[in-house]
């Protein structure tokens, strides 16, 4: 019997039209999009389904992506596809919390709206940036960055792909030195801020104030936190981890290794894109990975799980 892990993408996977077919096909998806519109006083249909100038702005991206992934997940649960564990990349961790029964759907949607605004406002545009470092091992990158102030590892995505984040000048210096250390490429990312760096420390503190009003529950299944790469089972740890997550490294590879060590052999990426499937292929080729972005993907998944 397969053990299933639900995994959820983070910022960068958003695209116009996401969730539209689920909205039109499944009443429970429509209900979630409509509820999000009501909670946030935003037109989520316009934001998610139509080409527009807002979807790529952090303050809107985060609530749009979380709403979409939750609207899709609700259908999987309705069809009897349930997870044994969950994880989400950065922003996606809020969906993992809902999947684990630790956070209410409504609270996840409203919290990430605040999170997006806080992250957008914390660092003025142009002061910070991020870069993907390709084909260089984590230990070498860590050693190089130790000697440079103002830059840190933002994401341990998979072997051969690590993202760094911080002050623009520090990231530029780091890229040059990492190339000299053997990196195949250093690719500057088109992002609005230095996410998962100490430059967002105060945004994390402010998020703590938002979270203070949220009531959490004990996770019904374990979820893997980005901050440590390990399972969380105690609700008392969750708020501090979510605060730290904004300015700490995302240990995605470690999250996946934790779930695989627990016997999770089937991963379902819920939301737009296949980025996490790509990471999984580089982390462990022995696991099975699916993605569900459209109702057609869901039909394919159900056929495969029944075989």
Identify the notable features of this structure and list them briefly.
alpha/beta; 4-stranded antiparallel sheet; 6-stranded mixed sheet
Number of domains: 2
Low-pLDDT stretches: none
Q: Supply the CATH architecture of the largest domain.
A: 3-Layer(aba) Sandwich
Mean pLDDT: 96
Helical content band: 40-55%
Question: What is the tally of helical segments?
Answer: 13
- What's the CATH C level of the largest domain? Alpha Beta
Give an overview of the whole structure.
It is globular and about 55 Å long. The chain has helices spanning 20-25, 27-40, 44-49, 58-78, 93-99, 105-122, 138-145, 168-180, 201-211, 238-245, 252-261, 275-283, 295-306, and strands at 4-8, 85-88, 128-134, 151-158, 161-167, 185-188, 223-224, 231-232, 266-270, 288-292. The protein has 2 domains: 4-123 and 198-306, Malonyl-Coenzyme A Acyl Carrier Protein, domain 2, CATH 3.40.366.10; 128-188, Alpha-Beta Plaits, CATH 3.30.70. Helix 12 (275-283) links the parallel strand 9 (266-270) and strand 10. Helix 2 runs antiparallel to helix 4 and helix 4 runs antiparallel to helix 6. It has 307 residues and is α/β, with parallel strands linked by helices.
Summarize the helices and strands and which ones pair or pack.
Layout: E1 4-8, H1 20-25, H2 27-40, H3 44-49, H4 58-78, E2 85-88, H5 93-99, H6 105-122, E3 128-134, H7 138-145, E4 151-158, E5 161-167, H8 168-180, E6 185-188, H9 201-211, E7 223-224, E8 231-232, H10 238-245, H11 252-261, E9 266-270, H12 275-283, E10 288-292, H13 295-306
Parallel strand pairs: 1-2, 1-9, 2-7, 9-10
Antiparallel strand pairs: 3-5, 3-6, 4-5, 7-8
């Amino acid at each position: 019997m397969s053990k299933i892990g639900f995994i959820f993408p983070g910022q960068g996977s958003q695209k116009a039209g996401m969730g539209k077919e689920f909205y039109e096909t499944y009443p429970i998806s429509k209900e979630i999009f409509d509820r999000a519109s009501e909670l946030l006083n935003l037109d989520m249909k316009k934001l998610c389904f139509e080409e527009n100038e807002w979807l790529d702005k952090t303050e809107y991206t985060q609530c749009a992506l979380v709403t979409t992934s939750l609207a899709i997940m609700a259908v999987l649960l309705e069809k009897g596809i349930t997870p044994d564990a969950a994880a989400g990349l950065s922003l996606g961790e809020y969906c993992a919390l809902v999947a684990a029964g630790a956070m209410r759907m409504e609270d996840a949607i409203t919290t990430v709206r605040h999170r997006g605004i806080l992250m957008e406002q914390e660092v003025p545009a142009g002061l910070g940036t991020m870069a993907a470092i390709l084909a260089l091992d984590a230990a070498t990158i860590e050693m190089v960055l130790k000697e440079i102030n103002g830059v840190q590892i933002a994401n341990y995505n998979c072997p051969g792909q690590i993202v760094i984040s911080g002050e623009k000048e520090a990231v530029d210096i780091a890229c040059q030195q990492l190339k000299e250390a053997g990196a195949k490429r250093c690719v500057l990312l088109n992002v609005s801020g230095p996410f998962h760096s100490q430059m967002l420390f105060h945004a994390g503190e402010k998020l703590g104030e938002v979270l203070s009003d949220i009531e959490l529950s004990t996770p019904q299944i374990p979820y893997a936190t980005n901050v440590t790469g390990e399972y969380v089972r105690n609700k008392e740890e969750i708020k501090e981890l979510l605060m730290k997550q904004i300015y700490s490294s995302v240990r995605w590879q470690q999250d996946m290794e934790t779930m695989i060590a627990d016997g999770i052999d089937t991963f379902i990426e819920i939301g737009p894109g296949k980025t996490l499937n790509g990471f999984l292929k580089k982390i462990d080729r022995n696991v099975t990975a699916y993605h569900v972005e459209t109702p057609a993907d869901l039909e394919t998944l159900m056929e495969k799980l029944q075989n």
